[in-house]
Design goal:
- This protein has a domain of about 150 residues: Beta Barrel (Lipocalin).
- It is built from no helices and 13 strands.
- The strands form 3 sheets. A 5-stranded antiparallel sheet has the order 1-5-4-3-2, with no helix packed on it. The protein has a 4-stranded antiparallel sheet with strand order 6-7-8-9, with no helix packed on it.
- A hairpin with a 4-residue loop joins strand 7 and strand 8.
- The radius of gyration is 18 Å and the shape is flat.
- The two termini are about 15 Å apart.
- The N terminus is likely disordered.
């Protein structure tokens, strides 16, 4: 369900993006639109990228390596997160640069709605260094109100290499969230979008992202939007996303 009934709105980290094509003009729930290139904001979240750096900057406490040369299925997820944290999700991918693991964690606490959380992307290398090394990491303090980090891996950029869609759940009356799409081979964010009353998932034919959003007309109660808009975005390999198709489905 796109329309949720959870607690009050929680502020989320944001970043500035540019758009490759004109945005839809119908009325939807609030939120930014995707684009690229993307520069993560470090004012609201401790976000780090490691592309091109032999020793990537990482969130505090994240291990710098895992030294056993084993397949992703045999890497213990607890070895990939900071000490004194709990693993909350693990997702596997196969990329043009080797196997990849996306792992999310939380710091235990008494209030499940105010826990420090984070996630990291690890990749398997065959360059003579440590076999497993993190190529991206991000962490949010408990005061940010992040409710959960969930994800999946799929090919969405058209390069025959797995990517990851990471959802940072922030709650609110519309099931609000921030979505990051990670190019796992590069360890980079290629999509950064946030909003409410929407869902973002992989699309095939063409390969890309399917964004489904509630469309509200004046007078619509929040439970019952007049329609849903489905937009397919495709990646153009120059850090730009274009609209491949769009349709509005009346309810």
């Amino acid at each position: 369900m796109l329309v949720g009934c959870t607690g009050g709105d929680v502020s989320t980290p944001s970043s500035t993006t540019t758009r490759a094509s004109a945005p839809p003009t119908s009325t939807t729930s609030s939120g930014s639109s995707p684009g690229g290139p993307v520069t993560p904001s470090t004012s609201a979240a401790a976000t780090f990228t490691a592309t091109g750096s032999p020793v990537p900057p990482l969130p505090p406490g994240l291990p710098p390596l895992f030294d056993d040369d084993v397949s992703s299925a045999n890497v213990p997820s607890g070895a990939l997160v900071p000490l004194k944290t709990e693993v909350t999700g693990t997702w596997f991918g196969t990329t043009s640069e080797g196997e990849a693991i996306v792992v999310a964690w939380q710091v235990p606490g008494d209030d499940p709605f105010r826990l420090a959380r984070g996630f990291a992307v690890w990749r398997r290398f065959d360059d003579g260094g440590a076999p497993w090394r993190p190529v991206f990491g991000a962490a949010w303090a408990a005061k940010r109100g992040l409710l959960a980090i969930t994800g999946l891996t799929a090919e969405v950029t058209g390069d025959a290499s797995d990517d990851a869609i990471v959802e940072l759940e922030t709650g609110g009356s519309g099931g609000c969230a921030r979505w990051l799409v990670m190019d796992l081979a590069r360890g980079e964010i290629v999509w950064d979008d946030e909003g409410c009353d929407r869902r973002i998932e992989p699309h095939t034919g063409p390969i890309g992202l399917l964004v489904t959003e509630a469309v509200y007309e004046p007078g619509d109660p929040h439970c019952c939007p007049s329609a849903f808009r489905e937009t397919v975005w495709t990646y153009e390999h120059d850090d730009r996303w274009n609209v491949a198709s769009e349709r509005v489905i009346e309810t």
